[in-house]
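Exercise: predict the fold of this chain.
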Amino acid sequence: MRVLGVDPGLTRCGVGVVEGVAGRPLTMVGVGVVRTPADAELGMRLVAIEQGIEAWLDEHRPEFVAVERVFSQHNVRTVMGTAQASAVAMLCAARRGIPVALHTPSEVKAAVTGSGRADKAQVGAMVTRLLRLDAPPKPADAADALALAICHIWRGPAQNRLQQAVAQNRLQQAVAQHAAGTLKTSQAPRTPQAPKGRTA
């Protein structure tokens, strides 16, 4: 499984590609940051992020894209920028038909370090260890992107099975409701029709 992790942000959008399967050693394929100037117009910054992510998709051909789920913060402006960059990443993947998974920061931290409250230094240290790197990727956005990819490789298959089970259960309920409605209609008493009178 090859996953592109995206740590969304307007100024620095972390990207990292990891390959492997759960239970076996993982391999870092690539890591980096898509940067945009803070003084540029918003629309142009989003275009730059799109072009950067498209280049990564072209080069590495991931099977899945894992994006950090945006959560509420005190700084509304930061949240908006993160959400906009996140939407660009999801759009790029969806346009190519690549499945997108969203993972919260606490899910990623728990998957990589064992604690949902780990700090960035702990995440970077574990990413370095898990991928057998010489040093933690810099900046932290790059390490976070790799952590997202690792999280999805480890948790993605289980989440997919859960989603499939939920979908199957809904389908079965829909079929049962349809059958019950059909049965009820067929068993409903028919209103007797009055005999037709003869015409002279």
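Check your answer against the key: The mean pLDDT is 88.
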